[in-house]
Hints:
CATH architecture: Roll
Largest sheet: 5 strands, mixed
Number of strands: 5
Number of domains: 1
Strand content: 5-15%
Bound molecules: FE2/S2 (inorganic) cluster
Strand order of the largest sheet: 2-1-5-3-4
Radius of gyration: 22 Å
Shape: elongated
CATH class: Alpha Beta
Number of helices: 3
Amino acid sequence: MPSVEFQEANITITADEGQDLRKIALKNKVSVYGGLGKLFDCHGFGLCGSDRIKVDPKDCVTPMTWKEKLHLNEKSGIRLACQTKLCGDATVSIAPALAHGEELKEGLMVFAATLVFGGGTLFFIVFMLFELAGKPLF
Ligand code: FES
């Protein structure tokens, strides 16, 4: 049975060949998500792209799936844990998932700021239109 070392969790696990790295990690209470990625995960369907990992060596896992190719640059060396099946001893880093979680957080903050600023601006415009029409809102 191959072994998998999860670097950030500082844990080494033996697992069955052919199992995906997400299931191996979650079964052993190791997270493969970072930041807000935990909230938006697709439970292993390869849709959300939030369980990004780096595996070393590259030939200890199955080749990239078409779902991974939709989310990731093939040359980046980053994989989706839910799509990556174990073939041999591996070392896994979740640094890409942590970075992706931070990107999601920044994106959400920009969205929230846009919503607040846009909503305030819209309210001001409506308020002024009613004022100009001689029918004050308040
Ligand atoms: S859990 Fe969503 S892509 Fe892997």
